[in-house]
Amino acid sequence: MSTGSQHQGAGTQPASPNGPQAVLLRKRFDDGLAAGSPFAAWAAVWKKMLLVQDGSATLICETLAGGPVQLDVLHQKVTADVPAGVRAHLPGTSFIERQVCMSHQGEVMMDNLTYVALEQLDPEVQRHLEQGLAPIGYIFDIKLTRKRPVPCPEGVLSRLWQRCGVPDPEAARTYVLEIENTSCMLITETYRSGMLQGLPLAGPGAQTA
Predict the structure, then answer these.
(1) Does the residue 5 lie in any domain?
(2) What's the structural domain count of the chain?
(3) Distance between CA 23 and CA 70 in Å, rounded?
(4) β-strands 107-117, 182-191: how paired?
(5) Which CATH number do you get for residue 49?
(6) 207, 205, 90, 199: which is closest to 148 by C-alpha?
(7) Residue 128: helix, strand or coil by DSSP?
C-alpha cells in the first residue's frame, strides 16, 4: 500500500487542457533498440520494473527527467459512455474520462487514460481533478492509496490509442486505484521511449532513427 511520495520543487508543469502546446515525439518503448543488444536487454528489464512498480509514475518521470516534466491534458469530460471494462471494476453510472501525456524535452514518457467513479470520489480529490491540470500521482501525497493490478480492458486500450496513436500494449498496464479502501479510479498507463531518457543507449547496440 502506498501512503504517498513527497514531490520536491515546483513539480510537473501543466499545459492547456485543450491539448499539447507543441508537437511531441511519441515512440513505442522499444523503438530504436537493436534486437538482441545489451541495451535492448537492459531496457526490457527496466520495462518490466515499470509495469510492476507500486509507486507514483509521476515521481518516476520527474526523477528520470531530473526535475519537472510537462503534463498535457488531451481530453477530460464527465460521461456515462465508458467501455464495459470500466464498469466491471468501478461502481456508479457517471465517470470522469481523462487522458493525459507526460513528456520531457519534447519526447513523450507516458500516455495515460483514467476513469474516475464520481459516486465514490472524495471531495478533496474531486477538487484536485476538477482543476484538470495536475498529475493524478500527486493525490498520493494527500490520501492513503493502493493499486490493484487488473488486465488491460481492450475497450480502454482502444480509446487510448484512438487519441494518441502508436499502440504498444506490451508497455501498458491497468490498475484500480483504491483511495482509503474504496475503488475510485481505473488507470491505464503506457510507457513510451521517453522513459529511457538519460540512459547510455547511443552505443553500438542502438539504432539511429
Answers:
(1) no
(2) 1
(3) 12
(4) antiparallel
(5) 3.40.1410.10
(6) 90
(7) helix
pLDDT in tens, the chain (209 residues): 333 333 333 344 445 444 445 689 999 999 988 888 888 888 999 999 999 988 788 889 999 999 889 999 999 999 999 999 999 999 999 999 999 999 999 999 999 999 999 887 777 777 766 665 556 665 555 566 788 999 999 999 999 999 999 999 999 999 998 887 788 899 999 999 999 987 765 544 444 44
Residue 2 falls inside a structural domain: no
**pTM score, two decimals?**
0.81
Domain that holds residue 181: 13-17+25-192
DSSP letter for each residue of 137-195? GGGGGTS-EEEEEEPPPHHHHHHHHHHH----GGGEEEEEEEETTEEEEEEEEEEBGGG
